[in-house]
Amino acid sequence: MWVAFVKMCLILKDKNIKILPTMPVAFFDADSTLRVSAIGRPSPASHPDDIVILPNIIPRLKNLLEAGYILTIVSNQGGIAHRYTTLEKADKTMAATI
């Protein structure tokens, strides 16, 4: 569930996770770090069916979670500002990534 929209930042929080001020945080850019376009687009931001999660990402993210990290995905979807896509499409694609 998206819980905040602050200066172009959408924040997704799982209600079952208690966040403490001393917890380490790992930040990941969505495009080309966690996911790529299956058909070679620069970004799959407007195409939820075009997402490919990069190899070995899931086990590495699980290791970080087990080590107590909060995982954070950031993404500068410039396509929204340039009207190549919409916030709704980018939101659906991020939900598909998660």
List the helices and strands and how they pair.
Layout: E1 2-5, E2 10-12, E3 25-29, E4 35-37, E5 51-53, H1 57-66, E6 70-74, H2 78-81, H3 87-97
Parallel strand pairs: 3-6
Antiparallel strand pairs: 1-2, 4-5
Describe this structure in words.
It is a single chain. Helices cover 26% and strands 23% of the residues. A hairpin with a 4-residue loop joins strand 1 and strand 2. With 98 residues, it is of the alpha+beta class.
List keywords for this structure.
3 helices, alpha+beta, 98 residues, two-stranded antiparallel ribbon, 23% strand, disordered N terminus, 6 strands
Helix content: 25-40%
Q: For the terminal residues, how far apart are their CA atoms?
A: 11 Å
H and E string: EEEEEHEHH
**With helices defined by DSSP (H or I, 4 residues minimum), what is the helix count?**
3
Report the principal-axis shape: globular
Number of strands: 6
How would you concisely characterize the structure shown here?
By secondary structure, the protein is an alpha+beta fold. Helix content is 26%, strand content 23%.
